[in-house]
Hints:
Blueprint: E1 5-11, H1 17-30, E2 37-43, E3 49-51, E4 75-77, E5 86-90, E6 96-101, E7 104-108, H2 118-126, H3 135-142, H4 144-153, E8 161-165, H5 166-181, E9 187-191, E10 201-203, H6 209-217, E11 222-227, E12 232-239, E13 248-249, E14 253-257, H7 265-269, E15 275-278, H8 285-302, E16 308-314, E17 319-325, H9 335-342, H10 347-361
Parallel strand pairs: 1-2, 1-7
Antiparallel strand pairs: 2-3, 4-5, 5-6, 8-11, 9-10, 9-11, 12-13, 12-14, 12-16, 14-15, 16-17
Amino acid sequence: MDRPAVAVLFGGRSSEHSISSATAGGVLRAIDRDRYRVIPIGITRDGAFVLEDDDPEKFALEASHLPEVVDNGTRILWPDSTLTRELRVAHSDGSVTSLGDVDIVFPILHGRYGEDGTIQGMLELLGLPYVGAGVLMSAIGMNKHVAKSVLKAAGVAVVPWVAVKRSDLARDRSLWERRIRALGLPVFVKPNQAGSSVGVSKVSDWNELDAALDLAFDEDATVLVEQAVVGRELECGVLPGVDGADPRVSVAGEIVVTGRDFYDFEAKYLDAPGIDLVCPADLHDGELAEMQRLAARAFDALGGEGLSRVDFFYTGTEFYVNEVNTMPGFTPISMFPTCWIASGMTYPELVTELIETARVTA
């Protein structure tokens, strides 16, 4: 029996290109090659789809060198209709070869043009099944302002925020500054549609606000200013329930910040000091049960598809959902797989489940 083909799609045009590449390295290493045939497809920073090397070590995440997809002259030729699932590759010499039919696409993409529903829409048009949330849930999850609005409407507590555009500030800066200052200090300023803490600043003095806004506006036309919540930073993984059952939620992990202002890009991916990741987090049974209940509710409110990592602030009396990530970091040391490993799964088992779930629901 032929092995199902899994196209692992990674890289992309967003500022999280390197993190996506590093995540793909972990997934490529974990996929059961006795069970699946793998087609690695990289997306360059310019948006070219290229046939990549099936070499996990090439995409290792190191502080001295962030992995990336480089244009090697090949071009992936996607199916020209829903009547076929054949992938082909055009080589730099003009020749074209078949890669065979693809059964599942695993889009390990973070940020815009990958995690925001755009690549999901392309795959829907081509009739190709894929791992993860669909178009709508992906789009909602990527848009922090919309996601917070949906969660709030669903009765899930979220951190107070103000969403603002440059045009808003140009039209009536005093009004928007009053709204922002009403949140109190400190605040976090972040792009509305970005992840991995790219473009995020902590503002402890209002004199720092303009620089923080400029940094975030470099990433997105809409910026969120969020009230800082004093509390523990907790995260858990969520997967859909089996046969219509409630979503499954992992144990909790905790980000312990001891020597930095917040959990920034360097701390997340470059092993900068001042951060400890603890999993499982030290929570009473009742606290964990409430966090898991809220995580499942947040997951369902946004669409309940694929996978998610739900991030919380916990004050000791109340949980606030910070974000719902529909394609969380997936390196072997990232919090999403770490929480599931602590819940009894192995990393390869988690990857296999995601692939098989996509195949069954296709």
